[in-house]
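Wait, can you check?
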Amino acid sequence: MKIHEIKIWLYAFFLTNRYGIKLQNIPKHSDKKKLRLEYAKKLFNKMNIEINVENHRKIPQEGKYIFLVNHRSIIDPLILDIALQHSPIFGLWVAKTELYNSFFFGNAVRNGGCIKVSRDKTQIREFFSDIKKGLEKGSSICIFPEGTRNKTEDSLLTFKEGVRIIALKNKIPILPVYIKTRTDISLKQALNNNTSATEVIVEFGDPIMYNNKENIETLYREMFHIKH
């Protein structure tokens, strides 16, 4: 690991935990959104990463949604936060138990606005209850439908079925978001050399109604012209 990369990771660790602590006693979602955005901007500024949205007109300015986002790197949640910076919408991220207990990310995940999902099937009722509570408070839900980071050369992994269940149970529309840039590569470039800016391009899709019976992954692929 190069000295530059070590410095970036140390800065990221410091910043993540600093904002994780700051977020601990912030009850209002509008204030959490502000702090999360501040954190993301500081980190990306340090790494010289720029986020550009192709179609700003499709960014929602009201309502509640289940945001579906493809997933290749640990910076993807921050990318969506910046993409939504000019919208009042606040999203609760669905995060695995491992992230809640992470030495690096734990504080930020627990305090920043997340809903824990566990592989333990006995906790599934609690998960859906937390989703419902979040939506009732006016939040949207942000999900990686692939279920894990995509470390393959394929554009997408197979989507999990939980998204449709959440949408139907809560009668909430689904809003696809596609991070067109390979963020795993972008992160490596930023860590190795941040003297030149690394651009990440984000595209928003059209809402999919919760009672749409078509395959969600197929609709997502068609919307963003993603080949199998």
